[in-house]
Design brief:
The complex is a heterodimer. Chain A is mainly α. Helix content of chain A is 71%, strand content 3%. Chain A has 7 helices and 1 strand. The longest helix of chain A has 29 residues. Chain A is elongated and about 85 Å long. The N and C termini of chain A lie far apart (55 Å). Chain B is an alpha+beta fold. Helices cover 21% and strands 32% of the residues of chain B. In chain B, strands 1, 2, 3, 4, 5, 6, 7 and 8 form an 8-stranded antiparallel β-sheet that branches. In chain B, strand 4 and strand 5 form a beta hairpin. Classes of the chains: A mainly alpha, B alpha+beta. Chains A and B meet through strand 1, helix 3 and helix 4 of A and strand 1, strand 2, strand 4 and helix 4 of B. Strand 1 of chain A pairs parallel with strand 1 of chain B.
């Protein structure tokens, strides 16, 4: 028998869909790796053991590569054309930040690593102002 | 008295017409927030089977070109050369033609007519006013030189 309830029951779900990039990526990933680069460079400077220093270089290069990876993903998957309208220098900012990550990978310059951190912070501001933090962070962490 | 059979015939035709129209209707539930604020997750809609090309500004249900098991509810941003450009009203949180390109008109299966749930927001789903569409690109070719919104393989796999 046809009841009002059965008439009103939806037959299926339609998706007002947004892929994974909505609410998954966080510049904090890149920042943690960049912080690691800075600390490794400091440890390198404080230590004279050749083996230790060699390991520092290896690990720093890995971490600098991860910075580039996280920034790349954020750039092409999280940021959308509307964000570019809001931040016309978005592409340039990412290009320079990833280039800076290459510089950190190649050198043992703590200043370069600090510069990278401040560039990631600029990206973080763009991400936050486009609602990234509300969509992504669980229980507001990290603040 | 002689007109009576014709009256009956007329009523049967009328009832048949109503049933035929009702059969073109369906009820669906919205999942996801890419059509906010127009449509909220959990909204229930009456949709009508689409025939012919939709109009620019209409909210439609179309097959997801990347996943045939899924139907998407989006707004028609442009119609050109028998293809439609779809866009979510909540553009910064929407996977739409910017990610998967234009769809053939036949991909648009239903038009959203009205919302019947929740009761507080019962009403017709009007086409978008022209001024809000002015901000959208008129051409279906959207990503000229720009990055596609979602190209990372993980994104393609992402279902609900």
């Amino acid at each position: 028998m046809i009841t009002l309830r059965s008439l009103l029951r939806p037959t299926r779900v339609v998706d007002a869909h947004c892929d994974i990039p909505c609410g998954v990526y966080d510049p904090e990933q890149a920042r943690i790796e960049a912080e690691s680069c800075l600390r490794i460079i400091e440890k390198y400077e404080q230590n004279t053991d050749e083996l230790f220093r060699a390991r520092c270089i290896v690990v720093k290069e890995e971490r600098a590569d991860l910075v580039k990876h996280h920034l790349d993903v954020l750039w092409h998957d999280y940021f959308k054309p509307e964000h570019l309208e809001k931040y016309p220098d978005l592409h340039d900012t990412f290009w320079k930040a990833t280039k800076q990550a290459s510089k950190v990978k190649q050198s043992l310059d703590a200043g370069a690593a600090r510069e990278l951190l401040s560039m990631i912070d600029t990206i973080d501001e763009m991400w936050k102002s486009t609602g990234g933090a509300e969509k992504t962070r669980v229980n507001g962490r990290p603040s | 008295m002689t007109t009576r059979p014709f009256t009956w015939l007329g009523m049967i035709v009328a009832v048949g017409w109503v049933i035929a129209q009702l059969r073109r209707l369906d009820a669906v539930e919205v999942r996801g927030a890419s059509m906010a604020p127009t449509l909220q997750p959990g909204d229930r809609l009456i949709v009508r089977r689409a025939s012919g090309a939709p109009n620019v500004g209409e909210v439609v249900v179309a097959g997801d070109p990347r996943d045939r098991r899924r139907e998407l509810v989006k707004r028609v941003a442009a119609v050109r050369d028998a293809h439609v450009t779809l866009r979510g009203d909540n553009a910064s949180a929407s996977t739409d033609s910017r990610a998967f390109g234009v769809l053939p008109v036949a991909g648009v299966r239903w038009r959203a007519v009205a919302r019947y749930w929740p009761p507080a927001r019962i009403g017709l789903i009007p086409p978008a006013p022209m001024e809000s569409l002015a901000a959208l690109p008129a051409s279906p070719q959207i990503d000229e030189g720009g990055e596609p919104a979602c190209t990372f393989p993980e994104a393609i796999v992402a279902g609900e």
